[in-house]
Amino acid sequence: MSKYYIEYDNVDVSHLKDWELELVKIFKEVTKLCGEIYDEQINSAAGFYPKGVTIDEIEDAAVDDPTILSPYTRVIREGSKLKAVFYYDEYKEQINRITTLLKDTSEIYSKNGLKDYSKYLEDLSSDLKSANFESSERRWLKLDGIIKVDIKLGPLETYQDKLLGIKRAFQSNLRIQDEQEYSNLKEYIEVINEILPMSPFAKDVSESDFVVRIDKVIAMGGWHADLFPSSSNYPADINYYKLGVKAIIYTNNISKKQPIVNKIVKTLIDSSYNNEQKLAQARKRVIIFHEISETISKLKFQKIYEQLRNYRDQVIEVYADLMGLKSGAVHVLKGFLTIEEYQYIQIAFVAHILRIWGQGKLNSSFSVYSDGDRLIFNYFLEREAIKIYENKIQVDYAKMYSAIDNLTMELSQIILNRDPKAAA
Which of 34, 49, 97, 276 is the most buried (most CB within 10 A)? Predict the structure, then answer.
């Protein structure tokens, strides 16, 4: 079994029907296969590119063969020339097995009345043998919460391509709905949509334009088993934002990381807000607010984000953090949250960015997150929203709210002015 496969044995699936349990069994095999492909992508001598290749070499070769710059090819050296090999040809054995299993699950969904999901799996089977995922992505992004057992897989994220940031690594996440965690979701969405700024370049967004799922993970493979995320936001490809946007919150992943956050609060932050149950709820809200903010902003500012180029991912992540925190204060004004609950959110966020910052030092895959968190932390220091005294971080809640508001406005202006230089 690939080392890039994680299976959770403590998820309650007793409420699932027999046909849904059969789906879980088959999807686990699919997820393992995605882990095998990812292992070859990042750990073999081959990787995404031949050893020692330069960016200039790749760009020169791409003039004659544009598929060298495709997100779905490996680049190899044949004599003195570079050549692109599509993922399907490189990982044919695993992909053929995956598509066979997906067709089996498609039939199960179809027999049980879920024709749209069945069609998504059919499209995904075809897309895995091509270099275009638009058909399956279009269907999946519109599928809502009536699907209890959901899987997202394929070559999705580019973080592991350290050379050009274009090659997509395989991953899979298999989940079921966490039905207990959907309270207040509608109110969260409404508030965040209200406070995001408008401009002539922004798009009006309605709740029907996107989907938010709150799930428990059953298994993860590939890059997700390596990263162990608390949440995801799709599509990863900005060219597909026009198809819709979907956020997924992984509640048991969040819970699994919570002891680290509790330890950070206890050892590094000078605060009376250290109730572990309240901290856990606050951190969950931090992540939910972030993902909703990112989801809506991707739809609203798609045309603008396209122009930020190399700084796009960092800007999106920082902006989602800030708008999520700002929305928490608005939730207090609307009576959805208490002042104490919001202050717990502030503490949980400081602990969260310290954890991500530390992970970024150990794993460069986290840099898209840790770079932005470092910016926010330093801004808080400059504005005295946080102070370091006797090796402890002290939080000034009023100044932190002001700092969040000011930095959000500064970043909003950069986004609305479509200024890549300012983003840098």
Answer: 34
Per-residue pLDDT for 360 more than 80?
no
Pairing of strands 269-270, 5-7: unpaired
In angstroms, rounded to a whole number, what is the distance separating the alpha carbons of residues 413 and 395? 27
Q: Name the DSSP class of 22.
A: H
How far apart CA 226 and CA 233 sit, in angstroms, is: 17
Q: Say what the pLDDT of residue 57 is.
A: 95
Q: Please, which residues bridge with residue 270 across strands? A: 394
Question: For residue 198, is it left (φ>0), alpha (ψ between -120 and 50) or beta?
Answer: beta
The closest of 387, 421, 384 to 403, measured between CA atoms, is 384
More confident residue, 82 or 228: 82
- Cα(32)–Cα(17) distance, rounded to whole angstroms? 23
Around Cβ 272, how many Cβ atoms within 10 Å?
A: 7
**Contact indicator for 387, 399 with CB cutoff of 8 Å:** no
Buried/exposed code over 373-402 (b: 16+ C-beta within 10 A; e: otherwise): bbbbbebbeebebbeeeeeebebbeeebbe
Q: Which residues lie across from 154 on neighbouring strands?
A: 171
Identity of the residue numbered 125: S
Instruction: Report the C-alpha dihedral over residues 192, 193, 195, 196, rounded to 10 degrees.
Output: 110
Q: With CA atoms as reference, report the closest residue to 151 among 177, 169, 133, 126.
A: 177
Whether 249 and 230 have beta carbons less than 8 Å apart is answered as yes
Residue found by looking up tokens 């075809």 in the block: 126
What average pLDDT does this structure show over 326-340?
92
* Dist. CA 57–CA 51, nearest whole Å: 12
d(CA 395, CA 402): 12
Q: Structure tokens of 209?
A: 């334009």
- 233: tokens are 């936001």
> Could you give the angle at which helices 397-416 and 367-382 cross, rounded to 10 degrees?
120
115-124, 140-149, 219-228 — which one is most confidently predicted on average?
Answer: 115-124
Average pLDDT over residues 72-88: 94
pLDDT 10s digits, 101-125: 999 999 999 999 999 999 999 999 9
Distance CA 350, CA 364 (A): 21
CA distance 225 to 36: 11
